[in-house]
Amino acid sequence: MLKQQGFDTIVIGSGPGGEGAAMKLAKDGRKVAVIERHDQVGGGSTHWGTIPSKSLRHTVRRMMEFNSNPLFRAVAAPTRLSFPQVLGWTQSVIRDQVSLRSGFYSRNEVPVLRGRARFVGPNTLELDTGRGRVRQLHADNFVIATGSRPYRPEDVDFSHPRVFDSDTILSLDHTPRSIIIYGAGTIGCEYASIFRGLGVKVDLINTRDRLLSFLDDEISDALSYHLRELGVLIRHNEEYTKVEARDDEVVVHLESGKRVRAEALLWANGRTGNTQDMGLEDLGIVPNSRGQIAVNEDYQTAQSHIYAVGDVIGYPSLASAAYDQGRFAATHITQGKCDVRLGRDIPTGIYTIPEISSVGKTERELTAAKVPYEVGHAFFKDLARAQISGQTTGMLKLLFHTETLELLGIHCFGDQAAEIVHIGQAIMSQQGEANSLLYFINTTFNYPTMAEAYRVAALNGYNRVA
Question: Omega of the bond prior to 84 within 30 degrees of 0, cis?
Fold first, then answer.
């Protein structure tokens, strides 16, 4: 046992939430340390989640653009990349991200301690650094930012070489001819796009009656249509009874009696918070059945000096939100209060092919709340910039109050959707008359641009009420 070492705050986890907290604390002059159990900083977002899947998707999307462009087809044969080849680019992006984030800690003199942390008292951690070495660390405050991992049901053999989750799929060393993706949430839909773009036969098994039911119905329907256009076979309202992993294939037995076969299985059905073996229960901090920690509006747990942020607390489980949560928790530690909160409307970015982004209310929500609203559409096929780039699939959809013209929801499907949505988000966040459909009608946009879709959609909607 090594000598106890003290800090003002110890942050457990170096993903977006942990990084946000550590950087804010360091800037405020606090003595802070970060604990990371992996060899490199960045957390699941950098190594297994956000960065890898989006990098894979980007490369596959560019390959698809090349192969579908008539100019390129005239001078070159279609290009077909393998899964290991696109992973190569992904690994280079991960290395760049690790280098960048490591620099943040070194420049701000925040030590990153390697090992597994376990609470042995309200203000004391044991850090197991491996090879039998354990050291004690003391702090006045703690921020738990340990993230989450793929949920693994006990009756599925994840040790089998043909069975993967969203972490281990990054170790796939070949391009399978076929794959079953069980779970049609954000991760499942994104990987369905990626593998289908590589020419893999994809069965997407959805346990619900529609894809991504939190989206506006029109956007969800568009996603279903275009995934099917790519060649993805979607099976709704299905539950597995057994997963049979064989030497040459995987067979998923469904309650409906179907037996779906493929060379590989990607399990993408749920996530579990990383809270096991941390000694939290002895402190009265009891995670729920999915390993998630309950917190108050200031991200404090049942122990007021122990905070939790990011995926380990559940919704919204977004890297972008986790970083802000970390900063807000750190502000509460240093100032005793934090008047800043996550925005009421958090944008959702889903990197399918094409991608999706939304902020604000859906038609279903507005109808249920009896809010009088109208709709404005701009279809990408009618935009000059989309015609130039060849990215004509998609649309921008604006929902606004019939009487006040206040923006209520923005939903985008198509190329650059996750970028386009932020223009509308900025206007939605304004108060009073500044949040109005008229902003887009009376503002001059560069031409040709994708942003011009806001003017087109606004005029389309205004014509319905004028």
Answer: no
Torsion of CA 451, 455, 458, 463, to 10 degrees: -150
Which residues partner with 231 through β-bridges?
none
Residue 76: what pLDDT?
72
Alpha carbon distance 137, 127 (integer Å): 7
d(CA 94, CA 48): 9
> What phi and psi values does residue 449 have, to the nearest 5 degrees?
-145, 165
Residue 426 lies in a domain: yes
Contact partners, residue 299, CB within 8 Å, separation at least 6: 307, 308, 309, 313, 325, 328, 329, 332
Q: Do 71 and 135 lie in a common domain?
A: yes
- In a domain? residue 155: no
Domain boundary among 225, 249, 269: 269
Q: Residue 378: give the domain boundaries.
A: 354-465
349 within a domain of the structure (yes/no): no
* 56 shares a domain with 171: no
Give the Cβ contact number of residue 134 at 10 Å: 15
- The reply to whether 247 and 318 lie within a common domain is no
HSE, side-chain direction, 13 A CA sphere, residue 177: 6
Q: Given this model, what pLDDT does residue 213 score?
A: 94
Q: Which residue has the tokens 């329907």?
A: 221
> What span, in angstroms and rounded, lies between the C-alpha atoms of 439 and 427?
8
- State CA 284 to chain mean position distance: 30
Structure tokens at 212: 């991504």
Kindly state whether residue 248 falls inside one of the protein's structural domains. Answer: yes
Distance CA 169, CA 150 (A): 11
pLDDT digits (tens, 9 = 90+) for 325-362: 999 999 999 999 998 877 778 899 999 999 999 999 99
